[in-house]
From TrEMBL:
Keywords: Aminotransferase, Pyridoxal phosphate, Transferase
PROSITE patterns registered for this protein in UniProt: AA_TRANSFER_CLASS_3
Keyword Acetylation (UniProt): no
InterPro entries, per database record: Aminotrans_3, Aminotrans_3_PPA_site, PyrdxlP-dep_Trfase, PyrdxlP-dep_Trfase_major, PyrdxlP-dep_Trfase_small
UniProt family annotation: Belongs to the class-III pyridoxal-phosphate-dependent aminotransferase family.
Chaperone found in the keyword field: no
Lineage, uppermost ranks: Eukaryota, Viridiplantae, Streptophyta, Embryophyta, Tracheophyta
Protein name (record): Adenosylmethionine-8-amino-7-oxononanoate aminotransferase
Length: 507
C-alpha cells in the first residue's frame, strides 16, 4: 500500500518528492482520537494506535462513543433517505439541524441557514450574501426590482487580514492576502480583491501572554500593561475596550479605510471577512481579540457587512461553541463546517440574518441566490450534525463541558504550556480550547510554510512517540476533540515537550 500510494495517488498540500515510501502512514481504522496504523517494529508488522494530533485536518471531534452514535444515525439516514434534492423540499434532518444552528451559534442574531458541502463553498456563499446586502444598502441596486445600475463601473472588495485563509476555491482565495497559497504557481488568476490589514497578535512566551504589534501600527503610546497580560482571560476582557490599545486600533483602521476610499471612486469595501481569534492555515496565529472587535465596530459604523469564517474555529475548537463569544461581537454572516458533523462527513452551513435574506427576495428568480450543489443538505450530513451539536453541548456526554459557563474546561496543562514557551528554541505558544500550537525559533528559509526545519522532530514524534503530527512549516500543533480527556492531552503534550527540549535540527 505504501508503494501503490506513491504510484497512484496525488495528495493535497504535499510535495511527493519529500515523502519517502517508508514514511507513508498506512491506516487500518480509527477509534476516537487515534488511528490504528501499520508499523514495522522489531521486524514485525504491527498495528499501533497513533494519536491524531491534526484532528484529521481540524475536523474531528468524536470520542469512541460518539463515533459509534454518528455511524448509527448516518446509517439510518442513508437507509431512509438515500439522497434527495433540496430546493423547495424539506426533510427532518435538515430542519432539526437548522433549528440547532439558529438556537446555538446563531442565537439572538441569525434567522436563516444556507447549506453547502464544505468550508470554501460556504465562504463563497457568504461573500455573495454580503455583497448583495451592501449593494442594496448603498443604492447600487434599485430596491424595487434589484436591477443593476452602473455595473461596469463598480468593483466590490473585501476588508480582510494578512495571514488569513478562507479556502481553496477561486473566489475564496481572492478574499485573502497574498501568500504561498495564492502565488502564481498555485493560483495564476489571483489578484487579491481587498484591503488587507496587518493584525496584532497575542502569544505566550516565557510564561507570559504578550501582544505583538506590526510595524504598520505605531505603539509609542502603549504602556507595558497594554502589551503584557497576566493570563489569557485578561486578553479577552471587555474592559480593554476603553484602553489606549483600542484607540490605537481605531485610529489605524479608520485611517486605512479612509485612504482606500479616497484612492478610488469605483472600488467599494463591501464586506469584512475574518477568522475570529485564530488564523489556522496562516500559522496558528492568535489575533488580538480587541483588534477584531474594534474592526467589527468600525465596519458597523460604515454599514459594511461582517462575515465570520468559523469553518476552523467553530463548534468548540477554541473552547466555546462560537468564537463570537470570545470576541464579544456578532457577525451578519457566519460560515461553519468541519466539527459541525463531528468531522465524520462533509457538510457546511452559512448562517445569516433576516435582513440579508430579504436582500435576495423579489418576484424574479434572477435575484435569488443562484448557488448550490447536488448534495445540498444531504440527510446523512444533517443527521450527523444534529447528533454532534447536541453531544458536544451536553455535559452528560461531554465531560469537558463547564455547563455553567458553557465553555470547555482547560485541556492543556498550564504548567507544561508555560514550560514549553520558555524553551530557548520556542518562539511562541498559542493554547486555546482544543488547540496548542508551538512555533519553533527559526530564521530565513527555516521559517514559514515551506520550512523543513522540523522534519526530524516530526519523524520522531510519529515513529517513536506515536503522535501523528503534520506541521505548518516551523509551527507544530496538537489538536484534540471537544471530548478528549485532559489526561490524554497532557500525555501528548509531555511527549512534545520532551522532544522539543532535546531538538537539534540537522541541515
Amino acid at each position: 500500500m505504501q508503494r501503490k500510494s506513491k504510484d497512484l495517488l496525488w495528495w493535497p498540500f504535499t510535495q511527493h518528492n519529500l515523502v519517502p515510501v517508508d514514511c507513508v502512514t498506512v491506516i487500518d481504522s480509527r477509534c476516537g482520537e487515534s488511528f490504528s496504523a501499520y508499523k514495522v517494529k522489531d521486524n514485525k508488522m504491527m498495528m499501533i494506535p497513533q494519536f491524531d494530533a491534526c484532528a484529521s485536518w481540524w475536523t474531528q471531534g468524536p470520542d469512541s462513543k460518539l463515533q459509534i452514535e454518528l455511524a448509527r444515525d448516518m446509517g439510518y439516514a442513508a437507509a431512509r433517505y438515500g439522497h434527495v434534492m433540496f430546493p423547495e423540499n424539506a426533510h427532518e434532518p435538515a430542519l432539526r439541524c437548522a433549528e440547532l444552528l439558529l438556537g446555538g451559534i446563531g442565537k439572538d442574531w441569525a434567522s436563516r441557514v444556507y447549506y453547502s458541502d464544505n468550508g470554501s463553498t460556504a465562504i463563497e456563499i457568504a461573500l455573495k450574501m454580503a455583497f448583495r446586502k451592501f449593494s442594496l444598502d448603498r443604492g447600487i441596486l434599485l430596491d424595487s426590482d434589484k436591477s443593476i445600475t452602473n455595473e461596469r463601473n463598480i468593483q466590490l472588495k473585501v476588508l480582510a487580514l494578512k495571514g488569513s485563509y478562507h479556502g481553496d476555491t477561486l473566489g475564496a482565495m481572492e478574499a485573502q492576502a497574498p501568500s504561498a497559497y495564492t502565488s502564481f504557481l498555485q493560483q495564476p488568476w489571483y489578484s487579491g480583491r481587498g484591503l488587507f490589514l496587518d493584525p496584532p497578535t497575542v502569544f505566550i512566551r516565557n510564561g507570559t501572554c504578550a501582544l505583538s504589534l506590526p510595524q504598520s501600527i505605531q505603539n509609542c503610546h502603549l504602556s507595558p500593561g497594554d502589551k503584557c497580560f497576566p493570563s489569557l482571560a485578561d486578553v479577552f476582557c471587555k474592559s480593554r475596550d476603553s484602553s489606549a490599545a483600542a484607540d490605537l486600533y481605531s485610529t489605524y483602521i479608520s485611517q486605512q479605510l479612509s485612504e482606500y476610499s479616497v484612492s478610488s471612486n469605483i472600488e467599494h469595501i463591501a464586506a469584512l471577512i475574518i477568522e475570529p481569534v485564530i488564523q489556522g492555515a496562516g500559522g496558528m496565529h492568535m489575533i488580538d481579540p480587541l483588534f477584531q472587535r474594534v474592526l467589527v465596530h468600525e465596519c458597523r459604523d460604515r454599514k459594511i457587512p461582517v462575515i465570520f469564517d468559523e469553518v476552523f474555529t467553530g463548534f468548540w475548537r477554541l473552547g466555546v461553541e462560537s468564537a463570537s463569544e470570545l470576541l464579544g461581537c456578532l457577525p451578519d454572516v457566519a460560515c461553519y463546517a468541519k466539527l459541525m458533523t463531528g468531522g465524520i462527513v462533509p457538510l457546511a452551513a452559512t448562517v445569516t440574518t433576516e435582513a440579508v435574506f430579504e436582500a435576495f427576495k423579489s418576484d424574479s428568480k434572477l435575484t435569488a441566490l443562484l448557488h448550490g450543489h447536488s448534495y445540498t443538505a444531504h440527510a446523512m450530513g444533517c443527521s450527523a450534525a444534529v447528533k454532534a451539536i447536541q453531544w458536544f453541548r451536553d455535559p452528560s456526554t461531554n465531560s469537558n463541558l463547564d455547563f455553567d459557563r458553557m465553555k470547555l474546561k482547560e485541556l492543556w496543562d498550564g504548567t507544561l504550556v508555560n514550560q514549553l514557551s520558555s524553551l530557548p528554541n520556542v518562539k511562541r505558544v498559542v493554547s486555546l480550547g482544543t488547540l496548542c500550537a508551538i512555533e519553533l525559533q527559526a530564521e530565513g528559509s527555516d521559517a514559514g510554510y515551506a520550512s523543513l526545519y522540523a522534519r526530524s522532530l516530526i519523524q520522531q514524534l510519529r515513529e517513536e512517540d506515536d503522535i501523528y503530527v503534520r506541521p505548518l512549516g516551523n509551527v507544530i500543533y496538537l489538536m484534540c476533540g471537544p471530548c478528549t480527556t485532559r489526561d490524554v492531552c497532557t500525555e501528548q503534550l509531555s511527549k512534545v515537550y520532551h522532544r522539543i527540549s532535546h531538538f537539534n535540527p540537522i541541515h
